Amino acid sequence: MSQNVAETTGAKPVQPSIAEANDAVLRRFPFDDTQDMEDARRGFLGTAREDLVKAADGRTVWDLGAYGFLDQDCPDTVNPSLWRQSRLCADHGLFEVTEGIYQVRGFDLSNMTLVEGDRGVVVVDPLISAETAAAGLALYRAHRGDRPVTGVLYTHSHIDHFGGVRGVLTDDDVRGGVPVLAPEGFLAHAVSENVYAGTAMGRRAAYMYGAVLPKGGLGQVGAGLGQTTSTGTVGLIPPTADVTRTGQQETVDGVRMVFQLTPGTEAPAELNIHFPDFSALCMAENATHNLHNLLTLRGAEVRDPRVWAQYLTEAVDLFAGACDVAFASHHWPTWGRENVVRFLSEQRDLYAYLHDQTLRMLNEGLTALEIAERMELPPPLERAWHTHGYYGSVSHNTKAVYQRYLGWFDGNPAHLWEHPPVEAARRYVEYMGGAGEVLRRARQSFADGDFRWVAQVVDHVVFAEPDHAEARALQADALEQLGYGCENGTWRNFYLMGALELRHGPVGTPTGTASPDLMAALTLDQLFDALAIRVDGPRSWDADIAVRWNVEGRDPVTLHLRNGVLTHGPGTGPAAPEPDAEFTLDEPTLRALLLGTLPPADLASRP
Questions:
Q1: Which 3-state string (H, E, C) describes 35-68?
Q2: What is the pLDDT of residues 57-73, one digit of tens each?
Q3: How far apart are CA 436 and CA 428, in angstroms?
Q4: Can you say how many angstroms the Cα of residue 465 is from the centroid of all Cα atoms in its chain?
Q5: What is the Cα–Cα distance from 531 to 201, expressed in whole angstroms?
Q6: By C-alpha distance, which of 438, 536, 565, 521 is closest to 238?
């Protein structure tokens, strides 16, 4: 154990049962299979000279050297399978996928792909932050020449695939004719996901990626899909062209692309790309070297594994016969036509199996928790490293399928109207004989290695008596042991972040995604919807206020606050209430007013 980390975080040694379980993983899986290691290093051209990527104000937004400890042997505080995956994801630098296609990997949670054209380079998925994207582009140019960016393509609507765009492209570039391509629906989903529930998602994401955990065997070792998220400047340049159908072909700077739309898979708006002149297939985030999320722990719309599997079948049918390499916006490529077909087919079978077997068991009357406990992958799938639950997991993905079809209710009437956590916890603790008796029994369960039960039962004491020091300490110790045993990187981070908070207090939300670019990309309808979410309903029950906005170049809009609900609709007509106030202004002024950058008192002084 690192003494400094232990002293800083209060981390405890691994318990024998967890150490033994981690050791059993070494014997269960083929750790002597080195193909992934060879593929992850294949085509390596070099990496940055400096480890730190910094923002303009001098703060570090990415540290290339932070995961150097993964070159050591796996300690008993980490699941060896997760350690293996994290070591693979931590490889950083510029890599040749095939002649003319290059990837910057290990500079952020995601990969940035660069496809060389006639004059310059087309950038696919420019990472999360402008600073990491700029560093990746500089690395590419150091090895391949100072080629201009002649096109940008977003494969889907998650922030790690567009947020760094201003590190590779400017508004002047776009005005000068550089195209930005994205799947149909990209902009609406990209901005709504990060604004409507962005605060809650950001808070959960801090736990999911272990934002404040120390890097190392006692703390954060990765997140399965990548190591962690960069913390630089998030931006968005809206697409100039949409991909609206499968089979659509576009040529940018001589780079021919054939698209497959895959809505409802890993993102609501997503696509795969075949590069016929390179015999290469980009799978976006639809086929990566792990089991992905059907419902990410940070929160999102539940994804559909049935259509996900169908689109993977379609990708094989459409492109595998003319594909010598498949790569994605995470992890490393797969080379060889036969290997590509096997990889995509196994990924397809993975999502289809979880979907079909969850449906079979829920139709037999099992609840989500029962299905999650019973679900096992077929041995051929379990033996494949790329099906392991490093990011998604079999457990929470089966619960997501259940939720997609049946919602939160498990059919047991006793669960229809349960007490909320604090009230239920007080009653549980009283029934169990008080906090002291619960902790006495829980300490014995801890000694027996039943950490899962300790976390579940002591949680009641923590909620019933939040300042109970012994309960917080025991709960932290149990969560920590559960984290030490996790193969899933995000589960480990959640457990260890929970332990850290119990020992040291709330950690807050270190990063946010609602950048000025994202807010500016909201339509007026989306902006009004986002404003409605912020209304404190109970405090405005008695209000009845209507405001009409006469926006230059648009039809009038009326905002109406009534019954604690802020609605918007046509400014005139039979359904429009008589306004209490009326404003005539241009759209930029209205946006500034609604976003809070223009104080209402200053409105009268505007020209």
A1: HHHHHHHCCEEECCCCCEEECCCCCEEEECCCCH
A2: 999 999 999 999 999 99
A3: 13
A4: 33
A5: 18
A6: 521
Q: Which of 314, 249, 305, 256 is nearest to 280 (CA)?
A: 256
Q: Is 121 helix (H, G, I), strand (E, B) or coil?
A: strand
Q: Which helix (H) or strand (E) holds 308?
A: helix 305-319
Q: How far is it, in rounded angstroms, from Cα 47 to Cα 49? A: 7
Element (H, E) at 373: helix 368-374
545 contacts: CB under 8 Å, gap ≥ 6: 560, 561, 562, 580
CA 325 – CA 336 distance, rounded (Å) = 6
- Structure token digits, residue 601: 């008192």
Q: What is the mean pLDDT of residues 96-118?
A: 98
Q: Using CB atoms within 10 A of its CB, is residue 549 exposed (0-12), middle (13-18) or buried (19+)?
A: buried
> In terms of Cα–Cα distance, which of 158, 164, 274 is closest to 225?
158
Indicate whether 143 pLDDT > 70. yes
CA dihedral over 535, 537, 539, 541, signed as positive or negative = positive
Structure tokens of 397?
């993905």
Residue entry with tokens 């119990």 = 502
d(CA 110, CA 411): 40
Q: Do residues 15 and 72 make contact, with C-beta atoms less than 8 angstroms apart? A: no
**Tokens 């494949």 found at:** 384
Q: Which two tokens stand for residue 267?
A: 């993102």
Check: CB of residue 133 under 8 Å from CB of residue 170.
no
Q: Which of 496, 460, 457, 456 is nearest to 480 (CA)?
A: 496
Report the residue count for the chain: 607
Single pTM value for the model: 0.93
Q: Which amino acid is at 43?
A: G
Residue in the block written with tokens 């609840």: 367
> What pLDDT, on a 0 to 100 scale, did the predictor assign at position 1?
44
Q: Tell which residue, 398, 207, 156, has the closest CA to residue 291.
A: 398
As a whole number of angstroms, the distance between CA 29 and CA 48 comes to 34
Instruction: Give the N- to C-terminal CA distance of the chain in Å, as an integer.
Output: 65
Spatial strand order in the sheet of 325-327: 249-252, 255-261, 271-275, 280-282, 325-327, 334-335
Using CA atoms, how far apart are residues 516 and 29, in angstroms rounded to an integer?
Answer: 47
286 vs 308: CA distance, rounded Å: 8
Provide the pLDDT for residue 519.
74
What pLDDT does residue 594 have? 80
* Residue showing tokens 């790309």: 273
Token readout for 343 is 């990889």
